[in-house]
Write a structure and sequence with these properties.
By secondary structure, the chain is of the alpha+beta class. The protein contains 15 helices and 50 strands. The model is unreliable at about 1-25, about 525-585, about 750-760 and about 885-925 (pLDDT under 50).
C-alpha cells in the first residue's frame, strides 16, 4: 500500500477503534441534561439526553460567565412546596453504581435568592444543597449497590428559593473495588477524591477514567478541600505507564503524578464534607521515581493517639511488587472528624521522603428502609400507571409523603391516609389497599369505581371510609362490623343492594347509605349512639351540638387565660419522674422579708429583659439574688409563672437553684442562690476581663458544666424542657467558676411523641436558631444552635453580634467563625488572651463541634450528649498535654505540623451510624 494512502487508512481505523471503545466504556452510563431539549455528545465524548420524561417542574435557560458546556445552559426547577419531585432511573440489580447530581443556579429566577433544599435517594436523605454563589457548580456523588431494578433521586423541602437540578448522571461499575460488608445497608457518600501532584487545576475524568469519576487536582484550594500543605511538599511526575491491576483503580494518568515530602514528611489538613462520621478511606501509591540501589523510600502514617495505625511501614516498591505498580492500603471503617489532619513521615532508615499519588474518602450513609407499605402501595399504583398523581416516585412516605397520602411519624412510617377523591379512578378497588395495616382514613369518593366493597379487616385502625358517589355493587360487607375503630362510613349514591347489617347499625358510627336504591335497612339493635346522615333533623342536632361544644371550649379557654395567680400554673402536666428527689413547691417569701434581706433593694447586681437583679442576704446568712419583674404585662406574668413552675420541680447541680418567689403589693420577684462570679459573658468580653482572663481548660470546664445542665433538661426531665434562651449571660459562675444555667422564663415543655412545639419565636438575636425563626417550630435542637454560639464565644472571646469585630461585611460570630474554620485558619478566631496555653487538637475538636451545632437544619446538629462527650474528650486532651508537656516541644501552632495533627479522633465511642460491632476498630482494606 502506498504511504500516501496508509496514513488516512490508519487514522480512520484508529478513529473507528476509539469510537467502539468509547461505546463499550459507556455501558451503563446515563447522562441527563435537566431542562435540555435534544440529544448531544459533549467535548469529552459523553452522550447526553434531555430529561423530557420528567412531567413536573419548569425549564429555565441560564447564562454563566466562562461556562460553555451545553448541559449547564439549562436546568429544571420545582415549586417551593411540601412535595418531593423524583427522577426514577433504571439500574441492574446486584450491581454497583456511581450517582452524581450537579446544581448551577445562574440566577434562573431573577431574584438572587440563593436556594436551599434537600435531595434524597429513595427514602434516604442524601444531602442538603446550599447555594452560596450563583456561578459555582455544586456537586454531590454517591456510590451504591443496586438492590432493586430502579433508583429514585428526589428533590424536596425548599427552605429558601426553589429546588432545581442541572444534571443527573449514573455510572455503572463492573467490579468490586467499592465492595464493603455493609453495602446492603449503607451508601458511600463521596467526600474527597484527590489527584495529588496534578499538573494543572483541571480535574481528570472520562475518558481517562473509564467510569467517569472526577479526580480533583490537589492544587485547587477551596473551603471544603485541602488546606495547610506542609513546607517541602513538591510535585513529581512520569510518562511511564502505571500498572493499576484492574480498571476500577485510579486511572494511569492520575497515578503518573504524585507529591513528595522532601523534608521527610507530607502533612495535610482537609475539610471533609458530611463528617464527622464513619468513613471509607484509601490511599493510592505508585513508585514513579527511579531510586538508586543505595536509597529507599519507607514511611508510615502518623495519627495522634493511634499507635496501632502508625505502626505499619509503607515501602511502595516492595508492597506493590515493583515500580510503576499500584499499591492501595486503606481502612473501610474509620471514625473521621470534620477536619482531618494526617501526616506521612519517613522512617529513620529511609533516605527519601514519603510519596502520595491519590486518595479517596467516602462517608457511610445509612439507608432508610422506607415505609413497610412501599410494596403494597406500588402494586396499587400499577393499576393507574398513566395517571398524573401516580408519577411522584420515590418512597411513599420519606423524606416527605406523596401529595395524596399521609404517613405516621414512625422511623419506618406507615401510610395512615389515602386521599384519592375525584381522581377518575375506574375498576375495582385494588386489593393491595387492604394490606395497608396502618390505614386510618380512606377517601375514594367521587370516582367511577365498580365491583364489590372489599374486606377491610386487615386494616384494624380504620376510622373513616369515604366510598360515596361511585358505582359499587353487591352487599354492604358484614366484615365492616369487625373494624373496632370505625367511626364514619360514607357509601351513599352507589349501586349497593341487600340489607344493611344490623350490627353495623348498632355501632357508635356516622353512617350514610342513602342513594342506594336496592339497599335497605334491616333490624336494628339498641345502640348507645348512631347517626344516619341525610335527614334535616340529624344534621341540625349535629350542628347544635357542635356550636354548644365550641361555646363551652371558648369560655373555658378564656377563663384559664384570665387567671393570674400561681394556682393557674399548669404544674399537673409535668412529670419530672427522673428528677433528683421529689417535686417540691417553691417557698413563698413575703415582701418584707425580701425588703429586709436586700436592705431596701440597695445593691443592684444585674439587669436584663426580665427586670433588675439585687443582692441580698437572708437571716440565716445565705446570700441570694432577687430578680424583680419590671413588666406587669400578661407576657411577663406568664414568664414569671413559667419559671416558678419549672424551677420548683427540677434540681441539678448545673442549674441555678430557685429558692422561692414573692408576689405581693403588685411585685413579682424570683429568689435564687447567689452566684459570686457573675455571668460567663462578663468574663469573656465584659468588665471582668480587665487584667485577667479565664484560661482554656477552665473555659472547657465551664462548657462541660453548662452542657450537663442542658443535658438534664433535654434527657433527664419528662417531658423534656427546651430552654429557648441559652446565651453567655444566662450561664452563671460560682466561687470556683463552676457553671450553672439560669433564666427559664422562656422555657417550653416538649410534647411527648411530637417532633416539635409550635411556638411564637422568642430568644436573643445572635443565639436564635434560624430554622426556629423561619418555621416557628421549636425543638431541642434550637438549644443546640444557641450552645454552638456559646462554644464559639468561648474559643474567640468575641460576642455573638458585633458591628466592628468581624469585618465590614459580617456582624455574626457564626458566619465569621465558619469562614475561618472551614478554611483551616483556626488561629484567626482564637482569643489572643489565651496566649499559647492550649492544645491545638482540643481547640479543633471544640471548633468542629461548634460548627456542627450551628448547622442550618436541626436534624444535622448533634444531641447535647454528643456535644458533652466531645467537650470531655477535649478536656482529657488538655490534661494529657499538661501531663506530657516534656514530650511536646510545641503545644499549639498556626499550621499543621509534624507535632500537631489537628483533631483526628479514631477512638471516639460515639456512634454516628449503626454498624455491626465487628468494625468498631479500623480494619485494613
Amino acid at each position: 500500500m502506498d504511504w500516501k494512502w496508509r496514513l488516512p487508512f490508519f487514522l480512520s481505523l484508529t478513529l473507528l477503534l476509539l469510537l467502539r471503545l468509547s461505546s463499550a466504556q459507556m455501558k451503563g452510563f446515563v447522562s441527563l441534561d435537566c431542562g435540555g431539549k435534544e440529544n448531544f455528545t459533549d467535548e469529552i465524548g459523553l452522550q447526553w439526553t434531555p430529561d423530557d420524561k420528567m412531567s413536573y417542574g419548569e425549564i429555565s435557560t441560564i447564562s454563566v460567565t466562562n461556562e460553555t458546556r451545553k448541559q449547564y445552559m439549562t436546568l429544571r426547577h420545582f415549586p417551593a412546596d411540601s412535595r418531593k419531585y423524583c427522577y426514577t432511573l433504571d439500574v441492574v440489580s446486584r450491581t454497583r453504581y456511581l450517582l452524581r447530581t450537579t446544581f448551577l443556579y445562574g440566577n434562573f429566577d431573577s431574584n438572587n435568592v440563593y436556594p436551599k433544599f434537600d435531595i434524597s435517594v429513595g427514602a434516604t436523605h442524601w444531602s442538603t444543597i446550599v447555594i452560596s454563589d450563583a456561578n459555582t457548580i455544586e456537586v454531590r456523588e454517591l456510590i451504591f449497590w443496586a438492590s432493586s431494578p430502579t433508583v429514585s433521586v428526589c428533590l424536596s423541602n425548599a427552605t429558601t428559593g426553589q429546588p432545581f437540578i442541572s444534571t443527573l448522571e449514573l455510572r455503572q461499575f463492573n467490579g468490586s473495588v467499592y465492595y464493603t460488608d455493609y453495602e446492603e445497608h449503607f451508601y458511600l457518600s463521596v467526600s474527597a477524591r484527590i489527584n495529588f501532584g496534578a499538573e494543572s487545576d483541571a480535574p481528570i475524568r472520562y475518558p481517562d477514567d473509564p467510569f467517569d469519576r472526577i479526580w480533583e487536582s490537589d492544587s485547587v484550594k477551596k473551603a471544603n478541600y485541602l488546606v495547610d500543605v506542609a513546607p517541602g511538599t513538591t510535585k513529581i511526575s512520569t510518562k511511564e505507564p502505571i500498572d493499576v491491576n484492574r480498571d476500577e483503580m485510579p486511572p494511569g494518568r492520575v497515578m503518573q503524578t504524585a507529591v513528595v515530602g522532601t523534608n521527610g514528611s507530607l502533612t495535610y489538613r482537609m475539610n471533609l464534607d458530611g463528617f464527622p462520621g464513619i468513613g471509607w478511606a484509601v490511599c493510592y501509591f505508585a513508585e514513579i521515581e527511579d531510586l538508586p540501589q543505595n536509597e529507599s523510600r519507607k514511611f508510615r502514617l502518623v495519627l495522634p493517639g493511634q499507635p496501632d495505625i502508625s505502626k505499619a511501614v509503607v515501602n511502595i516498591e516492595e508492597n506493590a511488587l515493583g515500580k510503576y505498580r499500584l499499591y492501595e492500603p486503606g481502612y473501610t471503617n474509620l471514625s473521621l472528624p470534620f477536619v482531618l489532619s494526617f501526616r506521612f513521615g519517613k522512617t529513620s532508615d529511609s533516605t527519601r521522603g514519603p510519596l502520595l499519588n491519590a486518595m479517596e474518602i467516602n462517608k457511610y450513609l445509612e439507608k432508610n428502609g422506607g415505609s413497610p407499605d412501599g410494596e403494597a402501595i406500588s402494586s396499587v399504583l400499577s393499576h393507574y400507571s398513566s395517571a398524573d398523581w401516580a408519577q411522584e416516585g420515590g418512597d411513599p412516605c420519606l423524606p416527605v409523603p406523596w401529595s395524596w397520602i399521609r404517613c405516621s411519624s414512625d422511623i419506618q412510617p406507615r401510610i395512615v391516609s389515602i386521599l384519592l377523591s375525584s381522581k377518575n379512578l375506574t375498576g375495582n378497588i385494588p386489593l393491595d389497599i387492604t394490606k395497608l395495616t396502618g390505614l386510618v382514613e380512606l377517601w375514594l369518593d367521587g370516582n367511577m369505581l365498580t365491583g364489590p366493597i372489599p374486606d377491610f379487616t386487615g386494616c384494624m385502625d380504620l376510622k373513616i371510609i369515604h366510598l360515596e358517589n361511585n358505582q359499587f355493587s353487591g352487599a354492604l360487607p358484614t366484615s365492616l362490623v369487625n373494624l373496632p375503630k370505625l367511626r364514619e362510613l360514607w357509601v351513599q349514591n352507589n349501586m349497593l343492594s341487600g340489607t344493611v347489617p344490623s350490627d353495623l347499625l348498632s355501632k357508635d358510627l356516622v353512617l350514610n347509605y342513602s342513594g342506594n336504591v336496592k339497599l335497605h335497612k334491616g333490624s336494628r339493635r339498641k345502640s348507645h349512639m348512631y347517626a344516619i346522615i341525610g335527614s334535616a333533623i340529624g344534621a341540625a342536632v349535629l350542628l347544635l351540638a357542635t356550636i354548644i361544644s365550641c361555646l363551652f371550649m371558648h369560655k373555658g379557654k378564656k377563663k384559664y387565660y384570665e387567671q393570674g395567680n400561681l394556682n393557674s400554673l399548669p404544674s399537673q402536666s409535668m412529670d419530672f419522674s427522673k428528677a433528683n428527689g421529689p417535686a417540691e413547691a417553691a417557698h413563698c417569701f413575703s415582701f418584707s422579708e425580701i425588703e429586709n434581706s436586700t436592705n431596701n433593694f440597695e445593691k443592684k447586681i444585674g439587669s436584663g429583659g426580665f427586670g433588675v437583679v439585687y443582692y441580698g442576704k437572708l437571716k440565716d446568712g445565705k446570700e441570694i439574688a432577687v430578680k424583680v419583674l419590671t413588666s406587669n404585662s400578661y407576657q411577663g406574668k406568664r414568664e414569671f409563672s413559667n419559671e416558678v413552675a419549672l424551677l420548683s420541680r427540677i434540681h441539678h447541680r448545673n442549674l441555678v437553684q430557685l429558692l422561692g418567689y414573692c408576689r405581693e403589693e403588685g411585685n413579682s420577684m424570683l429568689i435564687y442562690e447567689f452566684m459570686h462570679n457573675g455571668t460567663l459573658k462578663e468574663h469573656l468580653y465584659g468588665p471582668l476581663t480587665h487584667g485577667r482572663s479565664i484560661n482554656w481548660i477552665k473555659r472547657l470546664e465551664i462548657a462541660e458544666d453548662s452542657a450537663k445542665g442542658i443535658e438534664y433538661l433535654h434527657t433527664g426531665c419528662v417531658p423534656a424542657v427546651i430552654h429557648r434562651d441559652l446565651k453567655s449571660s444566662n450561664i452563671l459562675l460560682d466561687r470556683q467558676l463552676r457553671a450553672k444555667v439560669s433564666d427559664f422564663g422562656l422555657s417550653k415543655l416538649a410534647v411527648d411523641g411530637v417532633s416539635h412545639v409550635s411556638s411564637i419565636v422568642r430568644g436573643t438575636v445572635g443565639y436564635l436558631d434560624p430554622e426556629y425563626y423561619i418555621s416557628q417550630q421549636l425543638t431541642d435542637k434550637s438549644d443546640i444552635y444557641s450552645f454552638g454560639v456559646i462554644l464559639l464565644e468561648l474559643i474567640s472571646g468575641q460576642e455573638a453580634i458585633s458591628n466592628d469585630s468581624f469585618g465590614a461585611n459580617c456582624r455574626n460570630i457564626v458566619q465569621w467563625a465558619k469562614l475561618h474554620i472551614e478554611s483551616g485558619d483556626i488561629q484567626g478566631i482564637i482569643d489572643p488572651a489565651l496566649g499559647n496555653d492550649y492544645d491545638l487538637q482540643s481547640m479543633w475538636k471544640i471548633a468542629e463541634k461548634a460548627l456542627m451545632c450551628v448547622q442550618p437544619h436541626g436534624h444535622m446538629r448533634p444531641s447535647i450528649s454528643e456535644v458533652l462527650k466531645e467537650i470531655q474528650d477535649a478536656i482529657a486532651i488538655e490534661r494529657e498535654a499538661e501531663g506530657n508537656s516534656e514530650e511536646l516541644p510545641v503545644r499549639n501552632s498556626g499550621h499543621a505540623s509534624s507535632m500537631n495533627m489537628g483533631s483526628m479522633d479514631f477512638s471516639a465511642t460515639e456512634n454516628y451510624i449503626s454498624i455491626d460491632e465487628s468494625i468498631a476498630q479500623p480494619t485494613a482494606r
